[in-house]
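On clarity, I found the account of how folds are encoded harder to follow than it need be. Since the whole study asks how a given chain folds, the encoding of that fold should be made plain. For the editor and my fellow referees, an illustration may be useful. An entry of this sort, consisting of the sequence and the corresponding backbone structure tokens, reads as follows:

:::
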Amino acid sequence: MIDTPHTKCHSCVFADTSLSEEGQKHQNGCSLNRHELLGIDSVDENNSFVLSRVCNTFRPAEWVESLPLKEAIDSEAAALKEVYPRIGFFVRLDTDSQNAIANLNKTLNSITDISGGPAYIAVITDKVEYNEEVWGLFLQHFGEESEIKYHIVQIGSNPDNIMRVIDEGFTHAQNGWIYTVTSGNGVPKDILDKIHNYINIKMKRLIMVEPDQEFDGLLFPAFLFKFLNGNKHKMFSEDNIDGRDFISKVRDAAERSETKSVLTWEEFNAS
């Protein structure tokens, strides 16, 4: 049996405490409300909570002391800023469209407009003759010294299962979330705020939002794609090889979980 990771609140700056009549310190809450959102598994020898799940905002006193004064005054906001998610975009260039570059420009405009900004963008294309114009759009939108990384991913041809182009683009993936979109389509401006609210404020589990079209709108964490080997075979053991596509693997894992962690966009937006 695998033990579920826990978090001990003892020595966390966000633990609310009080003194008993005997003069002992007891934890009675959390300024970030993590004890209610994550659940209390037990109380330890220090009369502090042991939370039922990992808390990503546990911070010791040394952390506050290292902050600039302005951030230390509002340490709760500083901690939440540190866990604000990052996101990259895999854009499939629709080279069958007569307006391929104009459509890509539309999508890049949408991506650059999101709150919080993208960490990186990978444009996946099966036609090398568009590469010069794609690179020109990168320079137009981000410049040569942008902190936003941008890449062209050249493939020989589009696979029968179009989702497999994600595996080609994944060589440029970074930590955080990945969103897939076809050129000509936009992305939600508040996508990062919604992810942050769901996983860091409400502390709900999320491993995937299903695409709302064949390719567009798939949202997932990069670590999960890597762990499951994407759309390729995943060898768990010599007798256990999973040859399904990434979405099928994730759906199956989610069905075996007690907590709903795969959502449709309708469910995610409603949350």
